[in-house]
């Protein structure tokens, strides 16, 4: 195992929480009312366009410039990120990053929302990361990440919390590890319910077992 390709959400920290705060700020600014806490689960894990649709339906608003609202939310998300500190970092996540570093495993981050580097700088763990890749590129981000790390996809593990992330890992040949709901992430080569359950020796074993299966 020479590379590890990580997502941020539910792996390093809870970005759903940060995104929800930005959506709340947008709702207050544009519609004069915040969002109820129960909407947090509805917005978790969906892309920004889907999230905006849900919010507009909540307020029964039509005929607005959606691109403009998305840009506003992006700026508000940047402000939310500016205010975070190391306490948002999952404690086990730093331990995992240290384990990869100690075993000479290079790390790439799948930068889904374009803020990964800034977030990791605020959490003071950006020095662990060797490459950032964006899924907005046409190329599979896990293939791109392995290229950036200069290792074969099969020599990498990918750790993510979304079904589409696991799908892209499997398509590329990266050994997929899912963190979250077992049924949703059933296509992963290995699955745990939370990042605290994921230990380096087990990750190494999962990679070795799948390497032998090839």
What do these coordinates show?
- There is one protein chain.
- Helix 1 packs across helix 4.
- This protein folds into two domains: 139 residues, 3-Layer(aba) Sandwich (Rossmann fold), CATH 3.40.50; 68 residues, DNA polymerase, domain 1, CATH 1.10.150.240.
- It has a six-stranded parallel beta sheet, sandwiched between helices.
- Strand 2, helix 6 and strand 3 form a beta-alpha-beta unit.
- With 214 residues, it is of the alpha/beta class.
- The mean pLDDT is 93.
- The protein contains nine helices and six strands.
What is the total domain count?
2
Biggest sheet character: 6 strands, parallel
Radius of gyration, in angstroms, nearest whole number? 18 Å
At CATH level 3, the topology of the largest domain is Rossmann fold
Which range does the strand content fall in?
5-15%
> How would you describe the shape?
elongated
How would you write the strand order of the largest sheet? Answer: 3-2-1-4-5-6
Low-pLDDT runs of 5+ residues are none
* Structural category: alpha/beta
Count up the helices: 9
Whole-number mean pLDDT: 93
- Fraction of residues in helix: 40-55%
Order of helices and strands: EHHHHHEHEHEHEEH
